[in-house]
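Chapter summary example.
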Amino acid sequence: MNQRFQGLVLTWLKETLYPLALQVAQLPPETLPADLLVQILPLPNTQEPPFYDTLDARTYCSECPLFCAVLLARDLLSGAEADVLVKCIWGLIWRDAQERAVARDLDFATNGFDLPSAEYAARFDQADAQWQRWLNMSETVRTSWEDLLSDYADQRLWSLTFWSGEP
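The structure predicted for these 167 residues follows.
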């Protein structure tokens, strides 16, 4: 893959997607990836604790543009710095997707047996509100993707190698 594009994607991951994730997770902007890694955030597709998986959580993530953007960045990049950033962002999103799925299941289960629980309903409302914050970033993520592509095209079109016919 083109090194110029990889550099732009890494910058996008570090300077755009990571700060967005911190904002949505309501963490201070100065939070370092190392601070998140010690929290042992859950990750998708792992059997290591703390592991909990639901089809609902996977569906939620597939509908979250920030999660999808990080998935793409992960597939485009290699290296320790990118891996750490991806784990942190995924961990934050996956944690909230799981919480929404579990809270929804608990709320529905108790309501289904005519045992409504204000605690479970409140837990679901809180988890749902947090999940909506992730989804509310959709337009910001899309715009940042368009900016990334525009920056790449700009750099390619103004480079000497483009006009010399080199790939």
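To summarize the output: Residues 3-44+53-143 form one domain.
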